[in-house]
Design a protein that fits this description.
- This protein is mainly alpha-helical and 361 residues long.
- It contains 13 helices and five strands.
- It has two domains: 231 residues, Rossmann fold (3-Layer(aba) Sandwich); 81 residues, Tyrosyl-Transfer RNA Synthetase.
- It is 52% helix and 7% strand.
- The protein is globular and about 75 Å long.
């Protein structure tokens, strides 16, 4: 079966590893961009449940639950299964096969220099105890993306460096197996016979949202996250923990601090943002606490509809909805990935026999 991107619409692919609830950093870094992309692009969104096993192989039930919960978050923010394709990674066998092929093209030292990989090793305190499969997930992310041959990849700022390794894998494959000139422009690879387009990163409106500790990127594992299900009371409490170093409300403040990152991200009235910046910079009788409350209310206004929709998907009834969506979308996702794999194997002279995947009706 040959699949085609709708005329005039570029394809995008991005996704999440099911490690827990999604938070504000995910919302402004990628989720908002995904929702806005649905009418403009041919959208594929991947749940990387296979990758979750790289650090939680002993927690299969937790990974399964997190997989369903992430899809509920997607539905709650407005990702529409009628306009986008949901991809459950472990139900797309072509991804694992392509991972193996790309692993032969990427030097081990190059994989280990991937800054995203190095950051995760440090943040999770893995030292040298990580599994053999842990660095393999960086190669697997290349396969996640390239299996669907997208032109664009919506990501947070911290993932841009990883996208470069994916681009390297695509270039290398096209050069080695498709005869594409190493000096060819990225935009020319498909026209010159390459199997893979060279995808570009598409960063959301906030490339990297600082957490409520005011220092590190927002992350569940660092306990500095505001979740999409948090109540106003919880949001106020977490915002109250945001440290700025300012002592009094008549002391001039730094409007480039973490607090004002939140002001600019979540207070939509630009006039009000300018007013707060001027007062704060001048030390004009305005305290951090007042601004934190105002930001908390703006965040609550943003996520209240998400929280309400998310509650409707709670429990077994919501699980059933999610599983039905994933089952329905598996056939379409595999049609695209299998076509990619067939093209890749033909280029590699591995097209000995055809194959066909079957799914329950």
């Amino acid at each position: 079966m040959t699949t085609h991107t709708p005329p005039g619409r570029a394809r995008i692919l991005t996704g999440d590893t099911p490690t827990g609830q999604l938070h504000l950093g995910h919302l402004v870094g990628s989720l908002e961009s995904r929702v806005a992309s649905q009418d403009e692009f041919d959208c594929y969104f991947l749940i990387a449940n296979m990758h979750a096993y790289t650090t939680r192989a002993d927690k299969p039930q937790g990974i399964r639950e997190s997989t369903l919960e992430i899809v509920k978050d997607w539905l709650a923010v407005g990702i529409d299964p009628q306009r986008s394709t949901f991809v459950l990674q472990t139900e797309v066998p072509a991804i694992a096969e392509l991972t193996w092929f790309f692993a032969m093209l990427l030097p081990f030292n190059r994989v280990m220099r991937n800054p995203t990989l190095k950051t995760e090793i440090d943040d999770k305190g893995l030292g040298d105890t990580y599994s053999f499969g842990f660095p393999m997930y960086a190669v697997g992310q290349c396969a996640d993306i390239l299996a669907f041959r997208p032109q664009l990849i919506p990501v947070g700022e911290d993932q841009v460096a990883h996208i470069e390794m994916c681009r390297e894998a695509a270039r290398r494959f096209n050069q080695v197996y498709c005869g594409v000139d190493p000096h060819a422009e990225d935009s020319e690879h498909e026209a010159l016979g390459g199997v893979f387009p060279i995808p570009a990163a598409k960063v959301g409106r906030i490339g990297r949202l600082v957490g409520t500790d005011g220092k590190q990127k927002m992350s569940k594992s660092l306990n500095n996250a505001i979740f999409l299900t948090d109540t106003l009371k919880q949001i106020k409490k977490k915002m109250g923990q945001l440290y700025t170093g300012r002592q009094t409300m008549d002391e001039p403040g730094d409007i480039d601090n973490a607090l004002f990152e939140y002001v600019r991200a979540f207070i939509r009235d630009e006039t009000r943002v300018k007013e707060l910046e001027q007062k704060y910079a001048a030390g004009d009788n305005i305290g951090d606490g007042h601004i934190k409350v105002e930001v908390a209310q703006a965040i609550d206004e943003l996520i209240a509809p998400i929280r309400e929709k998310r509650a409707e998907l709670a429990g077994e009834a919501g699980d059933k909805v999610v599983l039905e969506i994933l089952r329905e979308h598996a056939a379409k996702a595999n049609a695209v990935a299998e076509e990619t794999l067939a093209r890749a194997k033909a280029a590699m002279k591995l097209d000995f026999f055809g194959r066909e995947l079957r799914f329950p009706g």
